[in-house]
Protein 1
Amino acid sequence: MSLIPYEPFRQLDNMRRELNRFFTTDFPSLATGFNQNFGALRVDVYETENEVVATCDIPGLEKKEDVDISIDNNILSVSGTVNRINEVKEEHMHRQERFVGRFQRSISLPSRVSSEGVKATYKNGILEIRMPKLKDDAKKGIDVEFH
């Protein structure tokens, strides 16, 4: 019989690992049966010399009233609704994975932007938002008076 040193926290360490694994995997919501990130908006944000650009994957928008874009305190907010007319009767549907319903996402922008002059275009399920950067005043030296 080999002796194994007693480690009182071994079981707690195993439990911690299992809990971490449980909470980092995507699991279905009990209420909807869908993934927690099912309605999450996927967004890429990058900046050029003169503007900040955000591209969002939002397939299924039918008209411009279905999406709302706002910029407040350097935070871009995109929200709206994806409506789909039932192309197939529900009793004939075997699987329904395309997103239908409300979406909302707020993103902190990497640079200060102006809310004037923002251009948004929607094409092939991708919303592109171009926001002009605010021109920062050049650094100004401040003279210190010595007495």
Protein 2
Amino acid sequence: MIPSNFDAFKTTLNNRKPAMDWPLWLKSLWYAAKQEWDASHDIAQDLDTTEGSWIHAHLHRVEGDKFNAQYWYSQARKPYCDDSIENEIRQIFEDLSTTS
């Protein structure tokens, strides 16, 4: 079950792993929020969806690879994000949790 709001999502970051029944985009976002870049990227790069592209863009932004991030933002049909990392994670969570 998807957490009911971002604060509930943040409490799950104390867990060792994301919930097994979560959609892949949420698992990828969870790893991103825990700063486990490789685990998040492994999932996001295999998601051939706008959700996966958005998380993929976020990860390359975190990595500092603006060129690659811009490509993935365009694939997700999102503008390049200049907000804080946590605020972008919140935005992704709030947007995708209401549409998934």
